[in-house]
Specification:
Length: 307
């Protein structure tokens, strides 16, 4: 393949990756448009229509038989149930947080998440960290501690988002199932319950599906706004280096933070500025931790220890 063609493919991969994280970053605008709908009902619609979208995509790509085969394996069904529980808790918390005016704290959760994933890699997968990676995790922990100590409360929204999505990512890594197939498996096991809840709400006269055409469209298209960025991410991740994907992922919480402060006018105090500042420095250090010049800067004691 010619260098020019390789460059085009690389640019296309970056475009897919940026599009995915940008879409995830602006999702609060979508959930705000559904503010009149209870978070539980939005979640039910998101689960059900995500399954419809993912199943349709598998059918279009000719992977229906592969899906049936994977669903017949017991370990995959256990994986699907576990992931379904984790992602449902994550989605519900995020939707509720956005519509309850906690967009800034929600963005904090997704800033912390990459470093929590690194922590899980060390504890569960026995991966090794160098000196600067250890420093980055400690700085992120200090950022959370600042808010906790100053406000006298744990930032539970951020921590729930971090824990659920971090463990969800770990389970997916251990299972080794790619995004589209994973989304279909995860949603198929809870789609019947989600549909049952939607039908119950509609029958009781409290459902929002028939309230207006625009509201119904937003609820139905929640499956597309969930599934489409996953497809973009999967395509991008196949092309661009993992380091590029790692840096690009901070685009989503940054956009979300800006929306919370400048669009939704949520308060951003000096305490939050200090906390976010510590986490941003932690992310910068972690992003640079693999550089050779960073290795030369680390203390000699840690070099001898192999860190």
């Amino acid at each position: 393949m010619e260098e020019k063609d390789q460059r085009k493919i690389h640019i296309r991969g970056i475009a897919y990756t940026v599009a995915a994280f940008t879409a995830w970053g602006i999702l609060p605008l979508y959930w705000k448009a559904l503010k009149q709908v209870p978070a539980g009902e939005i979640l039910a619609h998101r689960i059900f229509w995500s399954f419809i979208f993912a199943a349709a995509a598998l059918f279009i790509y000719g992977r229906r038989n592969e899906f049936i085969s994977m669903l017949s394996i017991r370990s995959n069904r256990v994986y699907a149930l576990l992931c379904a529980g984790l992602i449902s808790a994550n989605w519900f918390t995020y939707i509720w947080a956005v519509n309850a005016g906690h967009v800034v704290e929600a963005s904090l959760g997704y800033y912390i998440n990459p470093l929590f994933s690194v922590f899980l890699g060390v504890v569960v997968l026995k991966e090794k960290l160098n000196f600067w990676q250890v420093c980055s995790i400690l700085l992120a922990a200090a950022g959370v501690a600042v808010i906790t100590a100053t406000y006298g409360r744990i930032p539970w929204i951020a921590l729930i988002l971090t824990l659920t999505f971090g463990i969800y990512g770990l389970v997916k890594k251990l299972a080794g199932i790619e995004s589209l197939m994973g989304l279909t498996l995860e949603t198929v096991v809870i789609a019947p319950a989600a549909l049952g809840y939607i039908v119950f709400k509609q029958a009781a006269g409290t459902g929002n599906l028939g309230y207006s055409l625009s509201l119904a469209a937003l609820l139905v298209f929640s499956g597309i706004v969930t599934g489409l960025p996953l497809l973009w991410f999967a395509k991008g991740a196949q092309i661009v280096p993992l380091s590029t994907v790692g840096l690009t992922q901070y685009l989503a919480p940054t956009i979300t933070l800006f929306l919370g402060v400048f669009i939704f006018r949520e308060p951003f105090t000096s305490v939050e500025a200090i906390s976010f500042g510590l986490i941003w420095v932690a992310l910068l250090i972690y992003s640079l931790s693999g550089m050779r010049w960073m290795y030369r800067l680390q203390p000699r004691l840690f070099k001898k220890a192999g860190m």
